[in-house]
Amino acid sequence: MPRRVLQGTVVSDKNDKTVIVSVERRVMHPVYKKFIRRSKRYAAHDEGNAHKIGDVVFIRECRPISKSKRWEVVDESAAAGAN
């Protein structure tokens, strides 16, 4: 089964080897039929502390690294091959 790859923006880099990535998606409202934005925050593993606030990154599902980290930041070349 392939791993999911999501694109988002780094909103926090305060933890060591961890970034918080906000991923936005557009969903249609069930009654008004208007597209609204929903966002979710994911804790992702960043081994080299290479990404800072505001960076657009790709994250990929991985094995559980800690209690809250189930995603890892991937470089753009690997993410381009996955999509």
Automatic annotation (TrEMBL):
<dbReference type="GO" id="GO:0005840">
    <property type="term" value="C:ribosome"/>
</dbReference>
<dbReference type="InterPro" id="IPR019979">
    <property type="entry name" value="Ribosomal_uS17_CS"/>
</dbReference>
<comment type="similarity">
    <text>Belongs to the universal ribosomal protein uS17 family.</text>
</comment>
<keyword id="KW-0687">Ribonucleoprotein</keyword>
<dbReference type="InterPro" id="IPR000266">
    <property type="entry name" value="Ribosomal_uS17"/>
</dbReference>
<comment type="function">
    <text>One of the primary rRNA binding proteins, it binds specifically to the 5'-end of 16S ribosomal RNA.</text>
</comment>
<protein>
    <recommendedName>
        <fullName>Small ribosomal subunit protein uS17</fullName>
    </recommendedName>
</protein>
<dbReference type="Pfam" id="PF00366">
    <property type="entry name" value="Ribosomal_S17"/>
</dbReference>
<dbReference type="InterPro" id="IPR019984">
    <property type="entry name" value="Ribosomal_uS17_bact/chlr"/>
</dbReference>
<keyword id="KW-0689">Ribosomal protein</keyword>
<dbReference type="InterPro" id="IPR012340">
    <property type="entry name" value="NA-bd_OB-fold"/>
</dbReference>
<comment type="subunit">
    <text>Part of the 30S ribosomal subunit.</text>
</comment>
<keyword id="KW-0694">RNA-binding</keyword>
<keyword id="KW-0699">rRNA-binding</keyword>
